[in-house]
Amino acid sequence: MSMDRRKFLKIAGLAGVGLGLSGTNIIVRDTASASMESHTVSASATRLGLVIDVSKFKDEESYKNIIEACHSIHNVPTLIPEKNNPKNEVKWIWTDTYERTFPDQVNEYHPHSVKEQQFPLLCNHCDNPPCVRVCPTKATFKREDGIVAQDPHRCIGCRFCMAGCPYGSRSFNYVHPRPYIKNIDTSYPTRTIGVVEKCTLCVERLARGLEPACVEASNGAMVFGNLSDPESDVRKVLDKKFTLRRKPALGTMPSVFYVIGGDNHVG
Amino acid sequence: MYNGGKIIAGLVLFLGVLTYPFYSNMGRSIDQANPSLDTPVINQLEKKECVRPKEIMRTEHMKVLDDWRDAVVRDGKRDSMVLAGGVYEKSLQNGCMMCHSNKKKFCGECHGYAGVKPYCWDCHFAEGEKEEGLL
To answer: Staple A134 to which of A44, A119, A160, B12, CB 3.0 to 4.6 Å?
Structure first.
């Protein structure tokens, strides 16, 4: 007869959806007016972000390094090709083509080197995160330092956030992940079947004064820092280099910036 | 009474099933839960002190863990606790389980007795779990 927290939240979430549907016209009107106003960047003292210099990723190895660094310390399962079903894949950081990274940057004369380049992708830790807005249990929330965090204890697996995220940054555990983790790190938890997971910008490392694992493994190709501080490393790079963000027209205000054709050094 | 035999037989059967837990456990003694503190780390402690007094931990440990979870995950307050010279992280697997490395004999003892199955271990690890081949 006992009801655990997840079950309660699942039922409460569903009830919430039911209530929401009964007031659909109000919601539709609200979102319509909301999207008309452009999002102004939050004035908080800290907004953590990244700059990625794509030109510094020269070989397969350089991508593999950052992905391995992240996935190995966070117990991210390798479900492809073991279970050859793309929907099972769990990824915190991955790569994709130019076309799929910047679909609105259409230009048939872009250099081949750029078009054929792979781009490292991860959660954008948006300043205006749609995943946070749609989460019925507030499992996903924005921390004061700008990190879009997720509390797996509260996740009911509704996958609204996956539908809300325009960057595909979230993965759902369709199968129990533990058997598919290559080397388990017992200092970090795994996730369980039925919850969504994503990049945390290494909150547990930041708390110990370390940089995110991908940044550390990137050999200077990624720079991490506080976007609200004009003196920070990221801001210095942003001042000097022309950068792109993914799908800016959606108004999510990503905190991850891409330098496309950089020099030898980002900063 | 129409179908009296069937009704009475049905009632007897129903009552039998209903009271099954009582008579099946009648006269059977169940060992009292006795969580063990016999772990290498605890044995080495000069002063055996938990983050809260024993009586509170016995009844409120789930509340303590819940508070820590909210503090760490939601508010980012990861400050550790210093007690009798030891520093303890606000963490189940990197805090509690560092001393209580005997999950089965410590957690399992009362949880088994009380018939509760916490789902902490779906995601979190207990110290030594990997070595024991429980993964």
So the answer is: A160
Per-residue pLDDT of B94-111, as tens digits, reads 889 888 988 888 998 999
Distance of CA B110 to the CA centre of its chain: 5
- Angular region, A180: left φ>0, alpha ψ -120 to 50, beta rest: alpha
- CB contacts, 8 Å: B125 with chain A: 184, 186, 189-190
Chain A residues within 8 A of B130 when measuring between CB atoms: 184, 186
Pairing assessment for the beta strands A93-97 and A118-122 based on DSSP bridges: antiparallel
Contact A111, A98 (CB under 8 A): no
Specify the pTM: 0.80
Closest-CA residue to B78 (of B95, B61, B63): B95
In the prediction, which pLDDT does A29 show? 46
The stretch B32-57 carries a mean pLDDT of 88
Backbone angles phi, psi at B107, to 5 degrees: -70, -50
Q: Is B76 in Cβ contact with A207 (below 8 Å)?
A: yes
The verdict on ipTM greater than 0.95 is no
Query: CA of B123 to nearest chain A CA: how many angstroms apart?
Result: 5
Cβ–Cβ below 8 Å for A192 and B74: no
